[in-house]
Every structure is written in C-alpha cells, then in structure tokens.
Predict the structure.
Amino acid sequence: MDRKTFIKTTLGGAAALAAASTGIVSCAAPGAGKKKHVPLKISFQEGLTPGETLAQKLDFIESLGVTGFEPGGGGLASRVSQIKEALAGRNVKVSAICAGFQGFILAGDPAVKALFDSTMREIVRAAGELGSTGVVMVPAFNGQSPCMPHTRETRDYLCEQLHDLGEFALSCGTTVILEPLNREEAFYMRLVADAAAIARDSHSAGVKCMGDFWHMKEETSDYGALMSGGEYLRHIHIASRGRRVMPGEDGDKDNYVDGFRALKELEYPYYVGLECGLAGEDRAAALTAAVALLRRQWDEA
C-alpha cells in the first residue's frame, strides 16, 4: 500500500469510528454516567481522639457521626472484651488495627523474625475477634537491621511469607494490610502499586494494601496511586500535606479531591482514617473542622 492510499484508508476508518461513537452516545440510557453514591466512612485512631476513657473517646467519635475506630495493636489481645463491650450498641466499628507487633518480617536475624511471627499472629487473631478490616504492617523500616537485601529473591521470600500470614488472617476473619511509606521512612516499598503487586503475588486473599495521603507524596498522582491499588485497597490514612497534622491545618495544601475521586470511582467501601498530629491546642475543634473538610471535599469529588 502506498502512502497516499494509506492516508485515505486511515481517514476513512477514523470517520467511521467517529460516527459509530456518536451513535453509541446518542443511544445511551438516560442518566448513564452519573456518579454512584459512595459514603465516606471516617475513622479516628485511638490516640488521636480526645477523652480520658475509651467510653469518652467513643462518645466523641459518635458525636461527629464518625463510624470507625482504629486502635493500636500493642496489647490488643488483652483488650478484646473491653473494646467489644465499649462498642456494644454504638454505630462505631473497629476499622484497621495500627501495627503493634514486635520484630519485622524481613529481619535477617531469625530470632527477630520469630518474634514478628508470634506477636503479629496474636494481633491478627484479636483483630478477627473484633471484626477489624485488617492489621496494618510495613515489611521493613529504614532503621531496622539486620534486614534482608532489597533484591528479587527477597521479594519472592516476602510474598511466600505473606501468603502464609494472609491465609492465617483469613482463618481469623480478617486481613493483613501492606502500607507503603515515603523513602524517608522506608525505602523498600514506597508506592501503592508496589504494595498492590506484592499483595497480588502473595496469592492469598488475606493480603491487602492501603494508601496514605501523607506518604503518597512519593506518587505522581493521588488519583493514579489509589486506582493502582484497585481491588487490593483495604484502608486509607490521611493527614495534612505540609506538616502531617490535622487535615485543614496546612490550608490550601490540604486538597484530597483527586484521591477521593479515585475512591468513589472504585466504590471503595472501607475507612479513611486520620493518622496525624495537631498544630493547634484544641484537639476537639481541629477534629471537628477536619471532618467537615473531608466531607466537603468528598462531595466535591
């Protein structure tokens, strides 16, 4: 085919495709393309919430219409009955469990790895009893040593270990949730797509991942990052985008609409949990303002 014939053929095909596309749009059902209603489920970490007692903290959470509570994993097994009793009759559920284990999964020292295995499984078991969405974990922080080298073989090992842990979590009725961090805290796994791919390659439905708007400064796009998590996304953390304080305390920097749009398109059914510090002095007022900001931006998305 000579160049002139090729151009004529290509233009003709493009015209036909345009006509076909027009026809498809004109035949669309009324209301097609409208956004589906996806509720925003906010969660507070226990240490973030004002109140001297667990009951007071839960009262505050309920007063804002917040429905998630994220306790730490340290000592969780001994608190299961207390937390269940405190949640009874409330419209608040345990969201994710924030770490709390000892050791780490990529430890080069067998004793440290064994400590991780025992303490992590204890927390996972307790998380299942509480109906938690999963236990958040990081494979290795920068300062942890001795650590296995960042190689293909280490990744294969991690996936194998996560398979076993994920299957255990499933047997307990929960999951383990991989959290990617920025390079200042953990170089091993920095992107949501990395965490999702490792979850996939673990070949266990008990291994999931999460996104954290603070750590997602490593990403080129909030939307792209969370879309890359896809079906593996099980939890979200959020903080202000300048100083990692309350959403809204860093002013215009604190824009989450792009990421929220991805979550709504994914029909994400789990929690967006606040994990942050406090710049001001009034914790209750800052949390109230943060919840209002997140709800407003969620509606905008």
About this structure: Residues 6-11, 13-33 have pLDDT under 50 and may be disordered. Residues 5 and 11 are 10 Å apart (CA to CA). Residues 3-26 form the longest helix (24 residues).
